[in-house]
Design goal:
641 residues, alpha+beta, Neuraminidase, Immunoglobulin-like, 4 domains
Amino acid sequence: MNKYNKIYVTAFIIITFFLNQTKAQTYNPEKINKKATTLFENAYQNAIDGNYQNSIVHLTNALKIDKNYIDAMLARADIFARMKNYNAAISDYEKAIFLDSVYTKLQLQPFAAALAGIGNFEKALQIIQKFLLLEKLPPTYKKLGESKKNNYEFALQYAQKNKNSLYVFNPINMGGSINSTALEYLPSFTVDGNKMIFNKRINGDEDFYESNKIDGIWQKATPVLGKINTNLNEGAQNISLDGQWLIFTGCNYPEGLGSCDLYISYKNKNGQWSEATNMGNLINTNSWESAPSLSADKSELYFSSTRQGGYGGSDIWVSKNINGQWQKPENMGEKINTIGDDGCPFIHADNQTFYFNSTGHTGYGMNDLFISRRSEKGNWQKPQNLGYPINTIDDEGSMIVSADGKTAYYASDKGDFKNKIDLYSFELRDDIKANKTLWIKGKIYDKKTKAGLSSIVELTTINSDFVLSKLQTDNEGNYLTTLPLGKSYAFNVNKKGYLLYSENLTMLGNALDTPMVLNIALQPIEKGASITLKNIFFDSKEANLNPTSFAELDKVTAIMLDNPALIIQISGYTDNVGKPVDNLLLSKNRSIAVINYLVKKGISIKRLQSKGFGETKPIASNSTELGKAQNRRTEMSVITN
């Protein structure tokens, strides 16, 4: 007997046991027509067998024989409610309660739940309050009633707070190329949104399917290529944004450490997935691990686990990838995790917006979806309920959000009790959107030999020195990193034995609105090599370093410490605004300011030289503001190594 059968058996037990012990006001179940009671018994057997539609047919026929058969009315209402046909359930509950309010008094609670199911939380609250006023209410019923009362009060408060919202929740089925008569769920996407991998369950077997979007149209989904699908069940998965890794849940695998473990597969040069490997005993335990979500830079892995050390049933944990090694996972803390179950994490491409579900945070009942945002100090903020109608009184599973920050995807049966779960997309409200995120990709290579270089790519917000992402390229130097709109970033590439690569990426306004391809040639540290430090800033017409320069200068310091024989020159340049003599002095003083900072960081003055060139060596036209900005620069050149 599966869990759904048990639910319906329980429903019938409640009706036939609890209600029949209540002294009737007018209704007497012993006076019901025998043919009708036989149909009721048949309906009960059909519920046990999982044939709920036939159960409804028998109950409906019983009511045709005796329209006042309250037990049949309540049983049908309960089945309708569990099928999410709440309007039909409400109709039956109302009729039954009208016929005998004493006999049906315990059914006020499911009646209230059905009202909440259609979003009528005001009436649901009134009914549940009436339920809680019943005399000699069993403790378990009272506890349930209080819980539902809190849910409905929260729903009304949320509705009041958002009463002026024009948001329309309109899930759109993803169509026949993706969905079928089988069950489709748990999608994930590459950053460009053109490849989707999802779970499909056919005759109880779970496998991964993929679809590619070509000219805006999703192609027919097919099983993923390679050795990743097996005769075992491959569960919740997440494809890395660059499309090269797939981390998923494998349950009851022979080599597994617990009931469900996390596994990883890699895409090879032929576009096929490698045989999956267990992620090891730091990530996995003898408990349950599932629902992986990789950060955009693949430096953090979020997942659910029932391991020891949590706050409740399942908690969300995060492991950091340092130099290619996954570290011991850390609990995300009490702001995210609760005494309930917290799971299905999703970290957005902006690396700052986090979605998950929880039974422990205040909501509408069962699993609700929540959002938390990471501050520039790296702290997660208090989660916010996504609100009705995204959240309902029913179980909300996982949700992911595309790089545009507004398009969400989830699986739903849309009230279809035949378990036909499909994938849907919908647009989020403004207050729960993530940041629209573009991306930059390319290859890091040696300027002289053209050979690819495994390097560190780092993205730091200019105004806060918050490291948004820090990733390791592959062995050939290929990288992909994401760029949330609305900020300016210092983009640096570091490789031992090479000069720092420095770029300033402005994502403000309409400065950039398309993905970028940027191949980067690193210069070996040798005499005559030079770079422009594009994230060194001074106040207008001043020689005082802006604090936003410190992060980049610290990287220069690291290069000097790694190369103790290195001697460099810092050169300052200006545009042509003002008098040439003033510009020359300003450029000299700015180069000296950089030298002084490096000295304070422990670099010997003997290894540092400074020179100002003023406006004498422009690299762009001074006739435009963009050209002037390029000419105002600080360069670092190698004197000797």
